[in-house]
Amino acid sequence: AQKVTQAQTEISVVEKEDVTLDCVYETRDTTYYLFWYKQPPSGELVFLIRRNSFDEQNEISGRYSWNFQKSTSSFNFTITASQVVDSAVYFCALSEGGILTGGGNKLTFGTGTQLKVEL
Amino acid sequence: DAGITQSPRHKVTETGTPVTLRCHQTENHRYMYWYRQDPGHGLRLIHYSYGVKDTDKGEVSDGYSVSRSKTEDFLLTLESATSSQTSVYFCAIMTRNEQFFGPGTRLTVL
């Protein structure tokens, strides 16, 4: 069975600090996808990124960057120069296979990390 | 915006009553999902659908049933609501191996 662990329940930082959110996953599949979602206080779930298991290139999008390491089964998320608007709960998720493999892309979520960015 | 709406957005009901939540999408996506979100658990899959009349169970399906008679609508039914089903329910669709979520329904069972 697949599993996602976000060991950091809550992180508090001061604005402009860099912060890394950890995500460790377990899966038996060789084909899988990893995701990050943001849930601001308003409650909606915002898609941030999808990474497939064949692409270990790190990705940067503005102040956001992601580090995918298959050797350690980790998919960590870094926010550079954090801002108050980054305050949210962040979820890491995993899906095995894909439509063609019949997996239906069912997502397994971690328990989330609450990030608080203070002035 | 993935064109997903959920209704109702908030509902308070009593133990033992039936409840139906509706997820509606406007973009003809084949795959639809129902998740529940609870503190300390993240989101957990209840049921999903891979086409009209094609559904399957997820991790926490006990006490829930679903139906999909049209591509655009995916209904989640609690036949006899219990207090343990107090939660926030999210519907999702899948496109290009990415899942996008509706705004959520907050259900309170007293």
Describe this structure in words.
The complex is a heterodimer of chains A (119) and B (110). Chain A has 119 residues and is mainly beta. Chain A has strands at residues 3-5, 10-14, 19-21, 24-26, 32-39, 46-52, 59-61, 64-69, 74-79, 88-96, 107-109, 113-118. In chain A, the strands form three sheets. In chain A, strands 2, 5, 6, 10, 11 and 12 form a six-stranded mixed β-sheet that branches. In chain A, strands 3-9-8-7 form a four-stranded antiparallel β-sheet, with no helix packed on it. Chain A is globular, with a radius of gyration of 14 Å. The mean pLDDT of chain A is 91. Chain B has strands spanning 4-7, 10-13, 19-25, 32-38, 42-51, 54-57, 64-70, 73-78, 87-95, 98-101, 105-109. Chain B has 110 residues and is mainly β. Helix content of chain B is 0%, strand content 61%. In chain B, strands 2, 4, 5, 6, 9, 10 and 11 form a seven-stranded mixed β-sheet that branches. Chain B has a four-stranded antiparallel β-sheet with strand order 1-3-8-7, with no helix packed on it. Chain B is built from no helices and eleven strands. Chain A binds chain B through residues 4, 33, 35, 37, 43-45, 47, 50, 52, 91, 93, 95, 98-99, 104-112, and chain B through 31, 33, 35, 40-45, 48, 50, 56, 58-59, 88, 90, 92, 94, 97-101, 103-104.
- Mean pLDDT reading of chain A: 91
Overall 3D geometry of chain B?
globular
How many β strands of chain B by DSSP?
11
The proportion of residues forming helix of chain B, as a percent range, comes to under 10%
Uncertain spans of chain A:
none
Q: Write the H/E string of chain B, N to C.
A: EEEEEEEEEEE
Q: Sheet with the most strands of chain B?
A: 7 strands, mixed
Output the radius of gyration of chain B.
13 Å
Largest sheet of chain A: 6 strands, mixed
Query: How many E-type strands of chain A?
Result: 12
- Helix/sheet category of chain B: mainly beta
Q: How much of the sequence of chain B is in beta strands? A: over 45%
Percent range of helical residues of chain A: under 10%
Report the mean per-residue pLDDT of chain B as an integer.
Answer: 95
Oligomer: heterodimer
> Biggest interface: chains and residue counts?
A-B, 24 and 25 residues
Helix/strand class of chain A: mainly beta
Number of helices of chain B: 0
Q: Could you give the order of the helices and strands of chain A? A: EEEEEEEEEEEE
Give Rg of chain A in angstroms: 14 Å
